[in-house]
Amino acid sequence: MNADLRAYTLATADLLGIDLAADEIDAVVGQVERVAGLVEKLPHLDDDALTMAPRFEP
Amino acid sequence: MSPVSADSTARDIAAAVRAGDVSAAEVIEAALARIATAQPGCNAFRLITADRAREAAAEIDARRAVGEDVGPLAGVPFAVKDLFDLAGERTAAGSEVLLDRPPASKDAEAVRRLVAAGGIPVGTLVMDEFAFGFTTENSHYGPVRNPHDLERTAGGSSGGSAAAVAAGLVPIALGTDTNGSIRVPASLCGVFGLKPTYGAVSRKGVQIFSDSLDHVGPFARSVADLELAAGILVDGGDPSPFGRSPRIGVLGGWFADNADEQAVRAASAVAEQLGDVVSVELPLAEAAHAAASVITYAEAGELHIDRIRAERDRLDPVVRHRLVAGALLPADWYVRAQRLRAVWAAAIREVFDDVDLLVAPATPFAAPQIGTDTVVVDGRELPARPAVGWLTQPLTPTGVPVGVAPVWESERPLPVGVQVIAPPHRETLVLSALAQLESAGVAASPVAEEFV
């Protein structure tokens, strides 16, 4: 389990007032790790793309 | 075909009621009886609104008796995913905590339209809690069971909607689709489904899951019924037909690499039936799948942050862990996902300069057993619950309309659905293609044998 993500998860949950029970910390960190793995699949877009605002309409 | 049997279509029922061949009351009593019989095995319904249904049927019969036009859905029973408001009822969205809210003061807009057309809501349907899942293994209300094999999942999160239609309990049901929650259960339960263009169907009175991805759409066992419902629900749209023999792009890469042989064969059969076939590779598909997931986590976590602070012990633990993680994600990740989404949506629009429709399997495999953790595809072990949505998720962020055609093989007991994908606001092209597939026998949605 990624120690940095674990520390991030605990600190951010505390900051946001989300009380994590001891027996659910691993599961929540696991979910954050899963999303982190997905973010790694997002390519770094070039400068033109980076100027594009999110679009919600097709 | 009797207008009160499990395999009656909405069009059959409405025609019979309008002609006075059967009363709406008879139709509703037959539907309520089927639901009561099926519920212990299938578990599609969270709430059955029998009193309201009987009152509505009596009203339609009274109006018809004095010569009023009772609408294109006259007397047609329908049911809705348990996140559409029904006036006077509590909308649970698959949870217990939302039952603390007061009953809805009015019907959701999509429900209102179906009712105005003569349709009669008979209940709300079991779903994943807050729509956060693909298998409707709901810890509060129990799993929805696939009518074609009760040991298997109906898919999700609109699992109750697809199951109710597949079991012949209602001819039309409503669901929502954020990452595939119409398309996945349609595929696994063998029914037709439509995810219209983003924003084309009102979400007023619908419990939100992921605001920038949620779509409302119908399920049906016949394309004519799907078209009937879409005509009532969908705003706008370009009705012009294909201008030439359509070019069909079969999505490869991510969509083929993560599908088993049955799913790949189904997509090929659909494409070959529809027109001239070309292969299309979209290199950003895997990234789009990732982006859709990240956006969903973040938006759902933000939406429910007060509940995950205050209601820890009343949420499904798995859903709670996902929501907490979503609430904690750095803004940087969400923004990166939305940027990818913009580039991906532009890429999809560009593809439609060269093809009229895109085709891909809706799920990587047919319905797995309830409780299954992994499924082997092409020698690779995939996590069953997330993987069942891998082929629908990349398409949602683009907002394009997608229909699902259920494709069966004679030697296999369960179908796999195929996505038929059109440019924005071209629902008519999707429906036209689905009708062609149904007419040719490539796609079909029979009532599950156990429920006939």
Structural overview:
- The complex is a heterodimer of chains A (58) and B (452).
- Chain A is mostly helical and 58 residues long.
- Chain A has a domain at 3-41.
- Helix content of chain A is 57%, strand content 0%.
- Chain A has helices spanning 3-16, 25-39, 47-50.
- In chain A, helix 1 (3-16) crosses helix 2 (25-39).
- Residues 50-56 of chain A have low confidence and may be disordered.
- By secondary structure, chain B is α+β, with helices and mostly antiparallel strands.
- Chain B has a single domain (10-451), classed as Amidase signature (AS) enzymes (Alpha-Beta Complex).
- Chain B contains 15 helices and 17 strands.
- In chain B, strands 1-3-2-8-10-9-16-17-13-11-12 form an 11-stranded mixed β-sheet, with helices on both faces.
- In chain B, strand 4 (137-138) and strand 5 form a beta hairpin.
- In chain B, helix 7 packs antiparallel against helix 15 and helix 10 packs across helix 12 (317-328).
- Chain B is globular, with a radius of gyration of 20 Å.
- Chain B starts with 9 loop residues before the first helix and ends in a 12-residue tail after the last helix.
- At the A-B interface, helix 1 and helix 2 of A face helix 10, helix 11, helix 12 and helix 13 of B.
